[in-house]
Design a protein that fits this description.
This protein has 140 residues and is an alpha+beta fold. It has one domain: PAS domain (Beta-Lactamase), CATH 3.30.450.20. Helices cover 32% and strands 29% of the residues. The chain contains 3 helices and 6 strands; from the N terminus they run H-H-E-E-E-H-E-E-E. Strands 1, 2, 3, 4, 5 and 6 form a 6-stranded antiparallel beta sheet that branches. Helix 1 packs across helix 2. The two termini are 13 Å apart.
Length: 140
């Protein structure tokens, strides 16, 4: 069973990363924040965590580990359970502005399908996202 305090810490960390990206956006602008998010050695990447950015139509604007997906419309991308998790992120962003969504996704190191939770927040037409993998599967 997953430790609730670990989950809380992970949620807080994901939210802080998103808020840090938003702060950079607000001070340096869109071009600067997207360039920093795209940098695989930048401040928005640590181990299996990162920040990525979508627009409100589901186009990937920046991702440090999936640069080949930049510019692609991913709104209908589904996880291994058939869940259109990006559509859910976009819908919640457009209605409430922020939230958490759970889905299954391959871990970048092991390739194993794991539970992942993402925090996201919309600013203007950009949705900033950061997530974490669950440690309950025993990999992390």
């Amino acid at each position: 069973m997953k430790n609730a305090s670990v989950d809380t810490r992970d949620r807080i960390a994901a939210r802080r990363w998103v808020q840090s990206a938003i702060a950079l956006y607000e001070t340096a602008g869109e071009k600067a924040v997207l360039a920093e998010i795209e940098n695989p050695r930048g401040r928005f990447v640590l181990d299996d965590r990162c920040v990525f950015a979508l627009d409100i139509n589901g186009t990937l604007l920046a991702h440090p580990l999936e640069s080949e997906m930049k510019g692609k419309v991913l709104i209908d991308l589904k996880d291994s359970d058939g869940k259109a998790f990006l559509r859910r992120i976009i819908d919640i962003s457009n209605n409430r502005g922020y939230g958490f969504v759970d889905y299954k996704w391959p871990h970048p190191e092991s390739g194993k399908e794991l539970s992942r939770t993402v925090f996201f927040e919309k600013v203007d037409r950009i949705i900033f996202c950061s997530g974490f993998y669950s440690s309950e599967e025993g990999f992390l």
